[in-house]
Design goal:
This protein is an alpha/beta fold and about 250 residues long. It has eight helices and eight strands. Helix 6 packs across helix 8. About 40% of the residues are buried.
C-alpha cells in the first residue's frame, strides 16, 4: 500500500477559524488585534517588495506585474491591499467559509482577488509559482511546519521572496500573546494560539533554508499599549517577521 499523503492541515485549527469567519472585516470584533497589526505588516511588505523589485513605494500601483500568494489568507485582510497596489493576487485558505467571506467582501469592495479554498501542497503540486508569498500568522497553525514551508518555498520563483510572520515560543510570548491577549485582555478567543505550536526564529529559519531560501531580513514587532499601536522593533521575543529569498537561476 502507498504511504498516506502528508498534510499541512490541522483540522481543529481550520474549524476554529471557520467559526469566526463572519468577524474578519469587523475592526472592533474578534480580529481587532489583527486590524491594529495590519498597518505595520503592510508597510513592511510594501517597502521590502519595492526594494527587492526596484519599485517606487509611493507610486499608485507599485506592484503592477507581480504575482502574489497570500497563503492562509483568512478573510483577505492582506489580499485586498496587495491587489490595490497593482499585484495579481491569489488568496488561499483551507477554510471554505473564510474564502466565501473573502470573496463577498472583495466583490463589495470592487477588488479583484483570485480566492481559492485549497492548501499549500495542492498549489505547489499543481505547479503554481509566485514572485512574492505572504505567509503571515500561519505557521503556528499548521500540522507539519517543515512540509508547509517546503511547499511554500517550492512556489517562490527564482529571485522571488517570501515573508513569514509568527510568534516566538518564549515565556514572554506565553505571558503576552496567550495569557495576556486571550485570557486577561480577551483580545482573541481562548485557544487561538497553543504554546507548543509557536515557532522559534531558529526553527523557522532552518525550515526556510531547507526549502532552498536565504534569510535576508528579520524584524520584531512590538505593541505600545499607551499609543495602542504596533511598530517594528529589534525585539523578536514575541511577534516577529522573517524575509527570505530564492536565488536567481
Amino acid at each position: 500500500m502507498p504511504e498516506p499523503r502528508r498534510s499541512t492541515i490541522d483540522a481543529g485549527e481550520v474549524e476554529r477559524f471557520s467559526a469566526l469567519a463572519a468577524e474578519w472585516w469587523n475592526p472592533n470584533g474578534k480580529f481587532r488585534p489583527l486590524h491594529k497589526f495590519n498597518p505595520v505588516r503592510l508597510s513592511y511588505i510594501r517597502d521590502q517588495v519595492a526594494t527587492r523589485f526596484g519599485r517606487d513605494p509611493r507610486a499608485a500601483r507599485p506592484f503592477e506585474g507581480l504575482r502574489i500568494l497570500d497563503i492562509g489568507c483568512g478573510g483577505g485582510l492582506l489580499c485586498e491591499p496587495m491587489a490595490r497596489l497593482g499585484a495579481e493576487v491569489v488568496g488561499a485558505d483551507a477554510s471554505r467559509t473564510n474564502i466565501e467571506v473573502a470573496k463577498l467582501h472583495a466583490a463589495e469592495s470592487n477588488v479583484s482577488v483570485d480566492y481559492r479554498a485549497t492548501t499549500a501542497e495542492d498549489l505547489a503540486d499543481a505547479g503554481e509559482t509566485f514572485d512574492v508569498i505572504l505567509n503571515m500568522e500561519v505557521v503556528e497553525h499548521v500540522a507539519d511546519i517543515d512540509l508547509f514551508v517546503a511547499k511554500c518555498g517550492q512556489m517562490v520563483r527564482p529571485g522571488g521572496i517570501m515573508f513569514v510572520a509568527t510568534i516566538n515560543r518564549t515565556l514572554k510570548a506565553l505571558g503576552l500573546a496567550i495569557i495576556g491577549a486571550e485570557y486577561v485582555l480577551r483580545w482573541l478567543p481562548r485557544g487561538t494560539h497553543q504554546f507548543g505550536k509557536l515557532v522559534r526564529p531558529e526553527e523557522l529559519e532552518k525550515a526556510l533554508r531547507d526549502a532552498g531560501l536565504t534569510i535576508i531580513d528579520r524584524t520584531g514587532v512590538t505593541y505600545n499599549p499607551l499609543a495602542d499601536r504596533w511598530s517594528r522593533s529589534k525585539d523578536l521575543d514575541v511577534n516577529y517577521m522573517v524575509l527570505a529569498e530564492k536565488g536567481s537561476v
